[in-house]
Design brief:
This protein is 58% helix and 16% strand. It is of the alpha+beta class. It has a four-stranded antiparallel β-sheet with strand order 1-2-3-4, with helices on one face. The radius of gyration is 19 Å and the shape is globular. It starts with a strand and ends with a helix.
Protein backbone atom coordinates (compact mmCIF):
# COMPACT_ATOMS: atom_id res chain seq x y z
CA UNK A 1 0.00 0.00 0.00
CA UNK A 2 1.16 3.49 -0.81
CA UNK A 3 0.48 6.85 0.76
CA UNK A 4 -1.08 6.04 4.11
CA UNK A 5 -3.03 9.01 5.42
CA UNK A 6 -5.22 9.38 8.51
CA UNK A 7 -8.61 11.07 8.14
CA UNK A 8 -10.72 12.47 10.97
CA UNK A 9 -14.30 13.72 10.87
CA UNK A 10 -17.03 14.34 13.38
CA UNK A 11 -20.37 12.58 12.86
CA UNK A 12 -23.20 13.49 15.22
CA UNK A 13 -20.71 14.46 17.93
CA UNK A 14 -18.58 11.31 17.52
CA UNK A 15 -14.97 11.52 16.34
CA UNK A 16 -14.51 9.07 13.45
CA UNK A 17 -11.02 8.14 12.24
CA UNK A 18 -9.90 6.16 9.25
CA UNK A 19 -6.78 5.47 7.24
CA UNK A 20 -6.66 5.95 3.49
CA UNK A 21 -4.13 4.12 1.34
CA UNK A 22 -3.56 3.49 -2.33
CA UNK A 23 -2.91 -0.12 -3.30
CA UNK A 24 -0.67 -1.29 -6.13
CA UNK A 25 -3.69 -1.82 -8.40
CA UNK A 26 -4.68 1.84 -8.14
CA UNK A 27 -7.65 1.40 -5.80
CA UNK A 28 -8.04 3.27 -2.56
CA UNK A 29 -8.63 1.37 0.66
CA UNK A 30 -10.30 3.10 3.57
CA UNK A 31 -9.98 1.38 6.95
CA UNK A 32 -12.14 2.47 9.86
CA UNK A 33 -9.97 2.99 12.95
CA UNK A 34 -12.23 4.66 15.48
CA UNK A 35 -14.70 4.38 17.16
CA UNK A 36 -14.86 0.93 15.55
CA UNK A 37 -11.85 -0.99 14.27
CA UNK A 38 -11.89 -3.32 11.32
CA UNK A 39 -14.44 -2.48 8.65
CA UNK A 40 -12.90 -1.37 5.40
CA UNK A 41 -14.05 -0.14 2.04
CA UNK A 42 -12.20 -0.23 -1.26
CA UNK A 43 -13.08 2.30 -3.91
CA UNK A 44 -11.76 3.80 -7.08
CA UNK A 45 -11.50 7.49 -7.68
CA UNK A 46 -12.40 9.11 -11.00
CA UNK A 47 -8.73 10.01 -11.36
CA UNK A 48 -5.89 7.76 -10.25
CA UNK A 49 -3.14 9.53 -8.36
CA UNK A 50 -0.16 7.36 -7.66
CA UNK A 51 0.62 9.13 -4.43
CA UNK A 52 -1.37 11.19 -2.01
CA UNK A 53 0.49 14.44 -2.58
CA UNK A 54 -0.68 17.97 -1.81
CA UNK A 55 -2.12 18.86 -5.23
CA UNK A 56 -4.81 16.18 -5.02
CA UNK A 57 -5.37 15.76 -1.30
CA UNK A 58 -8.48 17.89 -0.92
CA UNK A 59 -10.26 16.19 -3.83
CA UNK A 60 -9.47 12.70 -2.57
CA UNK A 61 -10.15 13.67 1.07
CA UNK A 62 -13.62 14.86 0.19
CA UNK A 63 -14.43 11.59 -1.54
CA UNK A 64 -12.88 9.47 1.24
CA UNK A 65 -14.53 11.51 4.00
CA UNK A 66 -17.91 10.75 2.48
CA UNK A 67 -17.08 7.02 2.47
CA UNK A 68 -15.79 7.25 6.05
CA UNK A 69 -19.09 8.79 7.17
CA UNK A 70 -20.96 5.99 5.36
CA UNK A 71 -18.77 3.32 7.02
CA UNK A 72 -19.55 4.78 10.44
CA UNK A 73 -23.31 4.80 9.78
CA UNK A 74 -23.21 1.20 8.51
CA UNK A 75 -21.42 0.16 11.72
CA UNK A 76 -23.99 1.94 13.85
CA UNK A 77 -26.83 0.18 12.03
CA UNK A 78 -25.18 -3.26 12.06
CA UNK A 79 -24.47 -2.88 15.78
CA UNK A 80 -28.25 -2.82 16.38
CA UNK A 81 -28.76 -6.00 14.33
CA UNK A 82 -26.01 -8.22 15.80
CA UNK A 83 -27.94 -9.31 18.94
CA UNK A 84 -30.57 -10.92 16.68
CA UNK A 85 -28.10 -13.52 15.40
CA UNK A 86 -25.38 -13.55 18.06
CA UNK A 87 -25.42 -17.33 18.66
CA UNK A 88 -25.19 -18.07 14.92
CA UNK A 89 -22.39 -15.52 14.57
CA UNK A 90 -20.31 -17.15 17.31
CA UNK A 91 -20.76 -20.59 15.73
CA UNK A 92 -19.84 -19.21 12.33
CA UNK A 93 -16.74 -17.52 13.77
CA UNK A 94 -15.52 -20.85 15.15
CA UNK A 95 -16.01 -22.37 11.71
CA UNK A 96 -14.09 -19.50 10.09
CA UNK A 97 -11.15 -20.00 12.42
CA UNK A 98 -10.57 -23.40 10.81
CA UNK A 99 -9.58 -21.61 7.58
CA UNK A 100 -6.00 -20.60 8.26
CA UNK A 101 -5.29 -17.39 6.37
CA UNK A 102 -2.07 -15.55 7.10
CA UNK A 103 -2.26 -11.98 8.34
CA UNK A 104 -0.19 -9.42 6.38
CA UNK A 105 2.45 -9.57 9.12
CA UNK A 106 2.59 -13.39 9.02
CA UNK A 107 2.73 -13.31 5.21
CA UNK A 108 5.64 -10.89 5.33
CA UNK A 109 7.46 -13.11 7.86
CA UNK A 110 7.01 -16.18 5.60
CA UNK A 111 8.32 -14.27 2.59
CA UNK A 112 11.31 -12.95 4.53
CA UNK A 113 12.06 -16.47 5.81
CA UNK A 114 12.04 -17.82 2.24
CA UNK A 115 14.17 -14.93 1.01
CA UNK A 116 16.69 -15.50 3.79
CA UNK A 117 16.83 -19.22 2.96
CA UNK A 118 17.54 -18.30 -0.66
CA UNK A 119 20.24 -15.79 0.29
CA UNK A 120 21.92 -18.26 2.65
CA UNK A 121 21.96 -20.99 0.01
CA UNK A 122 19.41 -23.36 1.56
CA UNK A 123 17.40 -23.29 -1.69
CA UNK A 124 17.99 -22.32 -5.28
CA UNK A 125 16.11 -19.62 -7.21
CA UNK A 126 13.75 -22.10 -8.91
CA UNK A 127 12.78 -23.71 -5.59
CA UNK A 128 12.33 -20.28 -4.01
CA UNK A 129 10.05 -19.06 -6.81
CA UNK A 130 8.04 -22.29 -6.89
CA UNK A 131 7.60 -22.30 -3.09
CA UNK A 132 6.54 -18.64 -3.06
CA UNK A 133 4.16 -19.20 -5.98
CA UNK A 134 2.63 -22.31 -4.36
CA UNK A 135 2.22 -20.50 -1.03
CA UNK A 136 0.57 -17.56 -2.80
CA UNK A 137 -1.89 -19.82 -4.62
CA UNK A 138 -2.83 -21.67 -1.42
CA UNK A 139 -3.31 -18.42 0.52
CA UNK A 140 -5.41 -16.88 -2.26
CA UNK A 141 -7.67 -19.96 -2.32
CA UNK A 142 -8.10 -19.88 1.47
CA UNK A 143 -8.73 -16.15 1.44
CA UNK A 144 -11.36 -16.47 -1.31
CA UNK A 145 -13.01 -19.40 0.48
CA UNK A 146 -13.22 -17.42 3.71
CA UNK A 147 -14.50 -14.34 1.90
CA UNK A 148 -17.17 -16.36 0.07
CA UNK A 149 -18.40 -17.95 3.31
CA UNK A 150 -18.60 -14.52 4.91
CA UNK A 151 -20.55 -13.18 1.96
CA UNK A 152 -23.07 -16.04 2.28
CA UNK A 153 -23.40 -15.44 6.04
CA UNK A 154 -24.01 -11.72 5.52
CA UNK A 155 -26.58 -12.49 2.82
CA UNK A 156 -28.42 -14.74 5.26
CA UNK A 157 -28.37 -12.60 8.41
CA UNK A 158 -27.82 -9.06 7.11
CA UNK A 159 -29.12 -9.15 3.52
CA UNK A 160 -29.25 -5.36 3.29
CA UNK A 161 -25.47 -5.32 3.87
CA UNK A 162 -24.47 -8.28 1.70
CA UNK A 163 -23.31 -5.88 -1.02
CA UNK A 164 -20.45 -4.72 1.21
CA UNK A 165 -16.91 -5.46 0.14
CA UNK A 166 -14.33 -7.15 2.33
CA UNK A 167 -16.94 -9.40 3.92
CA UNK A 168 -14.53 -10.88 6.45
CA UNK A 169 -13.78 -7.45 7.93
CA UNK A 170 -17.52 -6.97 8.55
CA UNK A 171 -17.97 -10.41 10.10
CA UNK A 172 -14.95 -9.73 12.31
CA UNK A 173 -16.48 -6.40 13.31
CA UNK A 174 -19.76 -8.12 14.26
CA UNK A 175 -17.95 -10.82 16.22
CA UNK A 176 -15.91 -8.21 18.13
CA UNK A 177 -19.16 -6.54 19.15
CA UNK A 178 -20.35 -9.78 20.76
CA UNK A 179 -17.03 -10.26 22.55
CA UNK A 180 -17.02 -6.69 23.91
CA UNK A 181 -20.57 -7.15 25.15
CA UNK A 182 -19.49 -10.38 26.87
CA UNK A 183 -16.55 -8.63 28.56
CA UNK A 184 -18.79 -5.81 29.77
CA UNK A 185 -21.04 -8.39 31.47
CA UNK A 186 -18.15 -9.87 33.47
Amino acid sequence: MLGIKTLEIEVNGTLVKGSLQLNAKGAYQLDLLSPYVGPMFTFSFPKIYHALWEGHISEIDGFATSHLRTLFHKCENIKKEVPKFERELKEFWLELETISVLSPLEWNEKCMFLKKALQEGYMDVDTYEKTLNDLTIVMEKKYLEREKRCEVFLSQYLPEYSHLQNHFSWIHFCYELTEKKHLLLL
